[in-house]
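Can you make up a polypeptide sequence alongside its tokenized fold?
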Amino acid sequence: MKSRLENPRWLRRCILSLGGLMLLFAPLTIYAQSCALCYTQAASSTTRFIQALRSGILILMIPPMCLSIAVTLIAYKRRNRFYQH
């Protein structure tokens, strides 16, 4: 019989719980990068500039996210190919 510490499910649950608690109690400044220049520009600008800034952020986020998803899906589909002959 395995001891409780040797059980991978118990260890995985413990690590996930600890990570969740760390994210839950983290300060709000961790979630947002407080760039002084960006904040000053956004605070003193018009609604048109703010909308352009938001769309620019989305444009910069979408390609890396799509590439990450594609690499993950390819790795998932080919996960057992190494062991199959």
Summary: The chain has a mean pLDDT of 79. Helices lie at 8-24, 36-43, 47-77. The radius of gyration is 22 Å.
